[in-house]
């Protein structure tokens, strides 16, 4: 297995690590030119229900799936018929809309009839008391995927493991861009490190950046504000520690197309899952946005507003309603780019990183989510509820394919490189040695 991991990572380095900029001689395919995927005959016309399909994330997932596999039958699930009709018109043939309220068990049960895979994008997932959609999928023996970005929800989803296995239902939680693709990148970095008998993974850090709302609209605002009300869970040498949200600022280089950005600690589910699944003793996650004053505002909120207010969904929604028009206006200036950098430090002092940057968050999360959906349809996921980095969730041999598909339209995507090889201004110490 170690040898295979090494060969797989070398393949990724050879086929996917080229940054898609003029400086290095080429551009990656745009999202409008997504490569076609030939699914096996028994699943190529699968019926996929996308809950939250009239939203930006769900809608972009539906569009990406149709471009990957035109034969798939897409069902847009939502509460607004007019928006649903508009999305069906955009998607074209083999598409339909179903009115559904996921909080109503009868409505959800009706929407799930005749479905092969349900993709749950109807966030935010913070403070949801039940995994209603996952439970319904298991009861109806339907494959499941969500884009959850909440630690509590993800752990609650994992508690359905035995029920999913007994029902022979494959399910992935946290399967979007981050968490999701970032988890798979982490798994590949750790896999490559462990293939060297003298190398032990010691510290893994997730860094995320989104310009403005990233084109994802009010959902990302709601998620961000709710996360400000949560203590940050991180791990230091195997010990679980709790930190203040939006603290611990670092200035991180996201490479070509993004540059250096300030990022801050947030409580994100991939920290716990990667620590437990991949066995890395020190793990943390940080996030930053632009323009810079949005970061100042987020820091100020953690000091000026009580944590109880930031944990109250109704009060957070009032904040979203207040700030959303301003964020949309600033998006036109700041742009909507998104980037993530995953750093793995070895016990011998070496480091390897992966970088994934895209021009628009909603588009990228749609392509990434679609890549996970295709992996499930192709049989990569075993019965049970899995995180993306678990080999039962995305098989080791399927990771390269998933990353290649998710990287459609990226402006920069590299894997398993030394930091100095990809940063915008590495420091030369002399004699060809860089820091």
UniProtKB/TrEMBL annotation:
InterPro entries: NAD(P)-bd_dom_sf, Sacchrp_dh_NADP-bd. Gene3D superfamilies: Dihydrodipicolinate Reductase, domain 2, NAD(P)-binding Rossmann-like Domain. Coiled coil: none annotated. Residues 48-164 form the Saccharopine dehydrogenase NADP binding domain. It holds the Pfam family Sacchrp_dh_NADP. PANTHER family: CARBOXYNORSPERMIDINE SYNTHASE (PTHR43796:SF2). This is Saccharopine dehydrogenase. It comes from Perilla frutescens var. hirtella.
